[in-house]
């Protein structure tokens, strides 16, 4: 290894200003298609995220077009839970970039790697937001086609944002954004997406896919959130695709019985992950509706969960013949024994008492509580929590909110810190922690130093003394004026 190999490569974009507006300040992350940086809008003084196409794709127009398509499609949906893309352009060396809002948080993939299986209420809260975002995309005729935990960002309060519409496709035949066959960004038979979250039809490389591949992917994500495991693994990429296309997933409650996963959640997952797309939720909005019902403790549309079936063992013709002969021989012996020794009459059961025939009705399911409890904390503690102009108290504390699927926007105020915002969906109890950023310190004017003079201060002159001097001539001999 040479000295040049050990020297860290300097990122040439750091410190540059793109399109005379976006000054690159730091690198956030890197994906297969581009690198994401934090930048400062030099006019608005606002932090943004900039995704820049990687250098190796600079001379591939189709990849650059895919990045521009991501910006166009995401901006067309206009949903709070989809990343807001605001601008695009080219770097000095000709690479395409897009500008989007900066999310301070983590991806769902990072959260699952760190914590494993999530509490059921928290998993449902995230899945509900993603379902709403994808339902809005589907209403616009846009299929994401790469829904996975890495493409779900979580801001404060688990506020979800769906990102990376790079391989999305508009399914509306008359949609001018689609571009026609000559601008098709994927080829027939080419498998696009991440294997763990692919639908069976994607794994088989089928040409005709629709919005139900996103329904399947969200079912896999919910499966992973409540179990901590993806449903299918394999020794390699093709091994995973083969299992996705052919095998049935182990039901979540069978895989992790110690987690007490509810039957309702398992039913939703199994319907979303049905092998045949006709058996899945027909729309993402239908899946979103069932998720709301689960959180509210209401009946859902998904059929009862099905336990994992054992694979039937193959039986040969010889085994069938031998088995039939054995059964016939045993039956003959039984008949001979019964003829020689008739069985005694069975004892008559005692008459049933009336009290025994009365079966109490099953206990009624308690109705879902009208309120939810949200435990809020602030870092540092002591922030005042407000709902609009209404003061709810100071964190940490438990807030009781009316159960609703409508988001509630909370603000956190603390002297010396910037105001923080959090949006929650009060469908179930869960904790919320918000971190506040300190305000920039104002520069105080320095007091002017007092300069001491080396020259001692002059003393005030003493007043002149007036004295009456004695007459040297005496009284008699004193000269007189006007003496004649």
Blueprint of the fold:
Layout: H1 3-6, E1 17-18, E2 22-30, E3 34-41, E4 46-53, H2 61-77, E5 85-90, E6 96-101, E7 106-107, H3 108-115, H4 120-139, E8 142-143, E9 152-155, E10 159-162, E11 169-170, H5 200-203, H6 212-227, H7 237-246, H8 252-255, H9 263-272, H10 284-296, H11 317-340, H12 354-357, E12 371-379, E13 384-387, E14 390-394, E15 397-402, E16 408-413, E17 420-424, E18 430-435
Parallel strand pairs: 12-18
Antiparallel strand pairs: 1-2, 2-3, 3-4, 4-6, 5-6, 7-9, 8-11, 9-10, 12-15, 13-14, 13-16, 16-17
Question: Can you walk through the features of this model?
Answer:
This protein is an alpha+beta fold and 484 residues long. The chain contains 12 helices and 18 strands. The strands form 5 sheets. The chain has a 6-stranded antiparallel beta sheet, with helices on one face. The protein has a 4-stranded antiparallel beta sheet with strand order 14-13-16-17, with no helix packed on it. Strands 7-9-10 form a 3-stranded antiparallel beta sheet. Helix 4 (120-139) packs antiparallel against helix 6. The longest helix has 24 residues, at 317-340. The chain is globular. Mean pLDDT is 78; it is low at 173-191, 308-328, 352-360 and 480-484.
Number of contiguous helices: 12
The ordered H/E elements are: HEEEEHEEEHHEEEEHHHHHHHHEEEEEEE
Helix content: 25-40%
Number of extended strands: 18
| Major β-sheet profile | 6 strands, antiparallel
Cα separation of the termini: 131 Å
**SS content category:** alpha+beta
**Spatial shape:** globular
Mean pLDDT: 78
Strand residue content: 15-25%
């Amino acid at each position: 290894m040479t000295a040049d190999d050990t020297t860290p490569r300097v990122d040439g974009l750091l410190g540059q200003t793109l399109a005379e507006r976006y000054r690159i300040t730091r690198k956030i992350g890197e994906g297969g298609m581009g690198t994401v940086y934090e930048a400062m809008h030099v006019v608005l003084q606002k932090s943004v995220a900039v995704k820049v196409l990687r250098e190796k794709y600079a001379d591939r127009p189709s990849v650059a077009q895919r990045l521009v398509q991501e910006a166009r499609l995401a901006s067309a949906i206009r949903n709070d839970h989809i990343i807001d893309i605001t601008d695009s352009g080219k770097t000095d060396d000709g690479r395409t970039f897009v500008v989007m809002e900066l999310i301070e948080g983590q991806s769902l993939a990072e959260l699952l790697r760190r914590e494993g299986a999530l509490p059921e209420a928290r998993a449902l809260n995230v899945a509900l937001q993603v379902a709403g975002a994808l339902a809005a995309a589907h209403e616009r005729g846009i299929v994401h086609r790469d829904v996975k935990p890495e493409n779900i960002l979580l801001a404060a309060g688990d506020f979800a944002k769906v990102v990376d519409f790079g391989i999305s496709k508009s399914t509306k035949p008359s949609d001018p954004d689609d571009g026609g066959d000559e601008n098709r960004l994927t080829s027939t038979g080419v498998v696009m997406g991440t294997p763990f979250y692919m639908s069976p039809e994607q794994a088989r490389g089928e040409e005709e896919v629709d919005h139900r591949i996103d329904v399947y992917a969200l079912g896999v994500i919910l499966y992973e959130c409540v179990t901590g495991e993806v449903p299918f693994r394999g020794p390699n990429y093709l091994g995973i695709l083969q299992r996705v296309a052919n095998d049935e997933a182990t039901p979540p409650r069978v895989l992790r019985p110690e987690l007490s996963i509810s039957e309702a959640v398992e039913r939703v997952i199994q319907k979303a992950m049905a092998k045949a797309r006709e058996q899945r939720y027909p729309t993402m909005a239908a899946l979103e509706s069932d998720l709301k019902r689960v959180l509210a403790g209401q009946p859902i549309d998904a059929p009862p969960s099905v336990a994992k079936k054992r694979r039937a063992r193959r039986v040969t013709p010889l085994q069938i013949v031998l088995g039939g002969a054995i059964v016939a021989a045993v039956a003959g012996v039984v008949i001979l024994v019964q003829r020689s020794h008739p069985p005694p009459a069975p004892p008559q059961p005692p008459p049933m008492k009336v009290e025994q025939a009365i079966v109490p009705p099953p206990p009624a399911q308690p109705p879902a509580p009208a309120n939810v409890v949200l435990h809020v904390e602030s870092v540092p503690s002591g922030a005042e929590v407000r709902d609009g102009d209404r003061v709810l108290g100071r964190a940490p504390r438990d807030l009781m909110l009316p159960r609703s699927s409508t988001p509630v926007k909370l603000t956190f105020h603390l002297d010396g810190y910037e105001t923080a915002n959090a949006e929650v969906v009060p469908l179930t109890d869960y904790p919320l922690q918000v971190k506040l950023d300190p305000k920039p310190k104002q520069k105080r004017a320095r007091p002017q130093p007092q300069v001491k003079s080396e020259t001692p201060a002059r003393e005030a002159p003493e007043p002149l003394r007036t004295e009456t001097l004695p007459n040297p001539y005496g009284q008699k001999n004193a000269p007189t004026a006007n003496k004649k």
